[in-house]
Amino acid sequence: MRKAEERKEQKSKNEKVGNERERDKVESESGEGKRVRKRGRRGWKRKRRERSGRKRSRRKKRGGEIREREEEKKKSRRRSKKEKGLKERLEHGKSKPSYLKCRSDELQVYSDKIASCCEYLIIV
Q1: Distance CA 89, CA 99 (A)
Q2: How far, in whole angstroms, is CA 76 from its chain's centroid?
Q3: According to the UniProt entry, which residue ranges have a biased composition of type Basic residues (predicted)?
């Protein structure tokens, strides 16, 4: 008996809620209601972000070894590019890039230049 009564109460509650929703729809369509239904693409950025995150996690699950191998490939590719560029530079008679120059070499060059300019050097 009690279950049947509870079911009836629940049904009446649901009907009330449904009626309220219908009323809100009508009000929003007429433009008078306080509650206005929002239309359009809501939350599309968030969904996209979640999707991209999912891809990333899938890649992680593939295994650490594969990821490490990929990183090694990238590093070696970078290294070979640098070396290739260096060879070309040196072939064309250009100077070494600054990150490869040794400071002591530079000082030696400068001291040679000074010595060639001046007849005598006074080293203090």
Answers
A1: 14
A2: 23
A3: 35-62
Query: Rounded distance, CA 27 to CA 4, Å?
Result: 35
Q: What is the pTM of this model?
A: 0.22
The residue written with tokens 């400068």 in the block is: 110
pLDDT tens per residue, range 62-99: 666 777 888 888 888 888 887 787 777 777 766 666 66
Q: How far apart are CA 38 and CA 25, in angstroms?
A: 11
* Cα separation of the two ends of the chain: 112
Cα–Cα dist 27/15, whole Å: 18
Asked whether 7 and 13 are in contact (CB, 8 A), the reply is no
In whole angstroms, give the CA distance from residue 103 to residue 107: 6
* Structural contact between residues 42 and 31, judged by C-beta atoms closer than 8 angstroms: no
